[in-house]
Amino acid sequence: NSRWCNFCALCFYLLSNSILKNMFKASQVFVRVRPKGKVGGHSEDGPAVEKKLDGWTDREVLLRDSHKVTSYNFPRCVFGSQATQEEVYERMLPDVVDSFTTCYNVLFFAYGQTGTGKTHTMFGPEPCLSSPTPHEDWGMFPRVCHAVLQNMADRATTTTSILTASAVEFYCGEVVDLLTSTHDPCQVDDQEHAPIGHTAVRLTHHTQLAPFLKSVTTNRTTRGTCMNVKGSDHSGSSRSHCALILTLYQLDRGSGEYTQTTFNLVDLAGAERPSATGEQRISPLDAWVELVYCKKQLSISAQAALINWELYEVGNQVIRATEAAKQKKTFTPPKQCCTPAAQYLSGCLNGKYHLSMIVCLTQAPQFGWETWFSLQYGTDLSKLKTRVEQRKPKNLKKTIKKLTEEAAKQQVDLSATQPTSKYHLKRVVNLRHLKQTAEWLKLLQQESTQSTIATTTTSSSSTTAPSTEGE
Prior knowledge:
By secondary structure, this protein is α+β, with helices and mostly antiparallel strands. The protein is built from 12 helices and 19 strands. Strands 2, 6, 7, 8, 9, 12, 15, 16, 17 and 19 form a 10-stranded mixed β-sheet that branches. The relative contact order is 0.16.
């Protein structure tokens, strides 16, 4: 009896710890160090400053100054300058992809100074993006898509799935659709804190990635700087935050319930020091004034000021979310006095997303302070632990009916709204979002019915007649 009691106590202890680990998830933060540069903004012969990257191991980054060597041991893994795209993916994202396909939302984003390899990590070199077959230089986004499509194929006998891809750009306090050449405006939803109203294209095979990524790289706002020179095979410095959004609809054909999850891969614009880019430093206030009067024809100085301010604001929200989690309080993302990018990223810190981040660093001696700030940023996010929520299944038929009714009501409201009204754009975007979501769910329902009929027909045709042997 005593042995049995001890065994039960051990099982209860292990089960309790397993539940707690699943309830509270620490943010996963990784580090990648770019190779040394011979020329350009990240050349290795630049003048040294007070702080210096002093080396790294698989789990640690060392930063030296005149007083001491500081060890940063927050990374789950540190990728050296020789790491391949495949190695980076295999160490970071397979478990995250599994979370995505088992009904969890995901946010994975890249942070770092301009020119440290964020876009290279997320997309891959531009020439490889046109490859119709899997390429060794593919970045994280095409690899995630490929893995999700394989997962869908493996579960096709019981689950009907649809995977869509979208891309939005956060630039100059606005959010726009990167899959339209006219940069159609989108918005960040007040409740879910997610972009809505953007175009979504269906992905069924990896060959569809090339035209999708071509549209994204063509329409994204970039500009050559002395830190990130524009060339024939490189668009230069990213001047905007780019969110690549995968949406997965999964319908269990047995229960008739579906789940909808999103995998957000965000390539943040690079933090930069104006003096390093050869530009004049201006205040965020002056940058906002320039934005009001010059709209999108901003100077590089104004772009840098707005980018740095947004990144700083997101960092503050990470600290707020961490403090809320420690005190077992609910973190409320800001809705006012912040840009759409800050609202969107802050909305992912409240426990509805698995959080992962890669910090990209340079070895250039002239950027030791930027390296220090990037490591501080990674340290702050690594402290955030949230109670991650699994998406609950919903009844497909009821949801389609509800969305259709909401769209009809939104259409009436829009018809009564003047184009000059401040509510006009919001209602246009909301209506577009409702209609598009309803259409994808109707398609999911239709394909599920077809799969059920096909399975029934196959089962009937495979039934053999009773044997007549011996009659």
